[in-house]
Write a structure and sequence with these properties.
252 residues, mainly alpha, Aspartate Aminotransferase, domain 1, 2 domains, three-stranded antiparallel β-sheet, 8 helices, elongated, DegT/StrS_aminotransferase, transmembrane, membrane, PyrdxlP-dep_Trfase, transmembrane helix
Length: 252
């Protein structure tokens, strides 16, 4: 029996490579594939005949892994974890390695939280089936996760934001003082020209209006400084909530 199976091995491997190549090509045709997931790559210099497709969802969609796998199963696409995921999350391993933390192994953790596995047949899969598989995998409605970071003014993030806001406030205040001094000098010059020369009044009046407009813009900057200071007072008196949308770039 073993001898018979070994005789079929090369043929099985060749068919698996072909099936995987056609599935990958079908997925690559859609931009949605690279936006939401990635197929694991073989090591350089190797030509494996994988019996499955190992896929990682991008970080922004890790929270939908269970929902996505349920969706695939409901549409007839069977799936499995990639080699049981992070072994440290297995109860038997955790029992004998109490001091080890799953988070200390980020590669295994990524596979556990974002990875799944779809089998590659050793028999030729029809092109229509390959396209159907690709369409179903990419039809799922992915939604990037919204993360809310909560920190107090005394925390690391809160202190950092207070330092940044303080720096912005001081910079705007410095710009205000320098600009105000410059404007006063220019305004004095314009008034002096108006007193000494009767001609060119229209031109000088236009310059004066322009200077007043610039001064008004700087006044708005001062108001912004005041608002920043109010934010600082709020931070020092309470907590801070920052809402961030996870980007779909740099997902791996």
């Amino acid at each position: 029996m073993l001898t018979v199976q070994l005789g079929k091995l090369q043929g099985f491997n060749s068919i698996r490579r072909d099936n995987l190549q056609r599935i990958r090509a079908a997925l690559d045709k859609s931009p949605r594939f690279k936006q939401h997931m990635a197929i694991m790559e073989a090591s350089q210099g190797t030509d494996p005949a994988w019996f499955g497709i190992a896929i990682l969802l991008h970080r922004a969609y890790a929270h939908q892994l269970d929902e996505y796998l349920t969706y695939l199963q409901a549409h007839g696409i069977e799936n499995r974890p990639i080699i049981s995921g992070n072994f440290l999350r297995q109860p038997s391993v955790a029992m004998y390695c109490p001091d080890s933390k799953p988070q200390d192994f980020p590669g295994a953790e990524a596979i556990h939280l974002r990875g799944f596995f779809i089998g590659v047949h050793q028999v030729q899969v029809e092109d229509s089936k390959v396209q159907q598989l690709s369409d179903l995998m990419l039809k799922f409605e992915f939604q990037p996760q919204r993360v809310v970071l909560v920190t107090g003014a005394g925390g690391m993030l809160g202190k950092g934001l207070i330092i940044v806001l303080n720096s912005c406030f001081r910079l705007l205040l410095l710009v205000w003082f320098v600009s105000s001094s410059l404007l006063l000098s220019l305004l004095s010059y314009v008034l002096l020209m108006l007193l000494l020369h009767n001609s060119g009044f229209d031109c000088l009046f236009s310059c004066l209006c322009l200077l007043l407009l610039v001064w008004f813009v700087l006044f708005l900057c001062v108001c912004c400084c005041f608002c920043v200071e109010l934010v600082l007072l709020w931070l020092k008196g309470g907590g801070l909530i920052v809402s961030l949308q996870l980007a779909t770039t740099n997902n791996n």
